[in-house]
Amino acid sequence: MTEEIKDLTPKYTVPGIQREAAGRLIGVLRLRLHSLNDLHLTLKHVHWNVVGPHFIAVHEMIDPQVDRVREMADDVAERIAALGGVAPGTPGTLVAERTWDDYSIGRADAIAHLGALNLVYTGLIEDVRAGIKEAGDIDPATEDLLIGQLRDLEQFQWFVRAHLESAGGTLATSDAHSESEAAAKGAELG
């Protein structure tokens, strides 16, 4: 990791931040950018491959999330550039640098997709929280950017979870450990 941070240390950065610290922020933000670009594509995949009686509700719920996630990615990329880094936007770089696997559900019932998507959001939200913690030690502007995005991501997960929750407050996918397991538990509701 130290070598990776050294490679990301910019030649210049914003006033008040040391170049090495900016390199650490750039590393955090690159992973956020990859996760947001991946989420955008995953949400479109769900949008295109959702079927079943809840199709239209989920199909229409996803597009505003796609639009906001694209805005988030743009904000993160611009922050990377402002810090003096390079904002990688190519699919090859995303795949090479990401720390997670591809979304694994193809054409499936709406509730199955939402079960899997709930786990996607959980992983992303946990990573954003870790990024907030690291950014908070270096730069309040980057921390603020990530906090704003966290609020939106948590709201999107709430929208997803509303379809997976019983009237008694039980989340159907609460003990799922993989997308396929979460999709199967979600499909049981559908």
UniProtKB/TrEMBL annotation:
Gene3D superfamilies: 1.20.1260.10. SUPFAM superfamilies: Ferritin-like (SSF47240). It comes from the Bacteria. Residues 170-190 are annotated as: Disordered. Residues 32-165 form the Ferritin/DPS domain. It holds the Pfam family Ferritin. Belongs to the Dps family. PANTHER family: DNA PROTECTION DURING STARVATION PROTEIN, GENERAL STRESS PROTEIN 20U. This is DNA starvation/stationary phase protection protein. The lineage of its organism: Bacteria, Bacillati, Actinomycetota, Actinomycetes, Kitasatosporales.
